[in-house]
Amino acid sequence: MAVEVYLTFNGNCREAVEYYAEVFGTEKPQIMAFGDSKPNPEYPLPEEAKDLVMHARLTISGSTVMFSDTFPGSPFTQGNNITLAIVSKDINEIKSAFNKLKEGGTVGMELQETFWSKCYGQLTDKFGIGWQLSHDSGETGM
Fold first, then answer.
1. Who's near 34: CB < 8 A, 6+ residues apart?
2. CA distance 6 to 36
3. Shortest CA distance to 122 belongs to which of 16, 53, 114?
4. For the chain, what is the radius of gyration of the CA atoms?
């Protein structure tokens, strides 16, 4: 199980990821935009969200750093836009940590299957720290 940093931006994520890749001399970033995901008729994607970054990752000095833009209309507070991500191949480990961290905290998204993970959830713990927990099947990862 790894603890990784997740940075959220307010519409300028692509610029930030490319900047950090250049600064730290990393590989060219692979960037997935919200518009690249499979359409869901129940939740149509607003036009202004299509080019925003849904997920990107870089390896900086041996550590994984993940990035995304906030979804249009979602709250964004500069300075509170850093969360910790737990990525594990053990679903039971994900469920156990999530259930312990949510005690006294606020769940943003209950653990559930998403198109990128068999088990993903996010919450803010009782100390105000944001967490994302995701199962990594090893196929595409988070």
1. 45, 49, 50, 51, 52, 53, 54, 69, 71
2. 20
3. 114
4. 15
Q: What pLDDT digit, counting tens, does each position of 98-127 carry?
A: 999 999 999 999 999 988 889 999 999 987
Domains and CATH numbers, the chain: 5-69 (3.10.180.10), 84-135 (3.30.720.110)
Give the DSSP per-residue string, 57-83: EEEETTEEEEEEEPPTTS---TTS-EE
Interatomic CA distance for residues 142 and 133, integer angstroms: 10
pTM (2 decimals)?
Answer: 0.74
CA–CA distance, 11 with 25 (Å, rounded to integer): 23
CA dist 24 and 22 (Å) reads 6
In angstroms, the CA 104 to CA 61 distance is 35
